[in-house]
Design brief:
mainly beta; single chain; Immunoglobulin-like; 9 strands; 0% helix; 6-stranded antiparallel sheet
């Protein structure tokens, strides 16, 4: 299972976009991002993916944090200020790998199938 994220932001040499995630309250790491420019636009879609560990059955929570930094530089190249924009999102979901076998099911259909039911807030 993988965590796939994306955010739209401007394209410029003075912009840095980064993302990280926390799984079930434990810091899990950064998410590598790739920039995909949009046609006829000064913005791009920054998309990232990172594998998640195997999760036990039950409820889980992923918090994703995005940080966009923009360095403001004057005409003469003198650094003025850094603007920081932070966004975050939380997803609650449940992992259920229990089998839903009925007594008269043929053996080949008696496999447990994982399911994830996200609830986005």
């Amino acid at each position: 299972m993988a965590l796939i994220v994306g955010i739209a932001a401007l394209i410029a040499s003075n912009i840095n976009v980064s993302m990280r995630y926390i799984l079930d309250g434990t810091y899990s790491g950064g998410i590598p991002l790739a920039m995909h420019p949009r046609n006829q636009s000064a913005s791009a879609l920054y998309v990232g993916s990172t594998p998640l560990p195997e999760l036990p059955d039950g409820p889980h929570r992923i918090d994703v944090y995005c940080r966009i930094e923009i360095d403001s530089v004057g005409i003469n190249g003198v650094y003025y200020q850094k603007y920081v924009c932070q966004r975050n999102a939380t997803v609650y979901f449940t992992v259920n790998t229990t089998s839903s076998i009925t007594p008269n099911s043929p053996p080949e259909t008696q496999q447990s199938k994982p399911s994830i039911n996200p609830k986005i807030s």
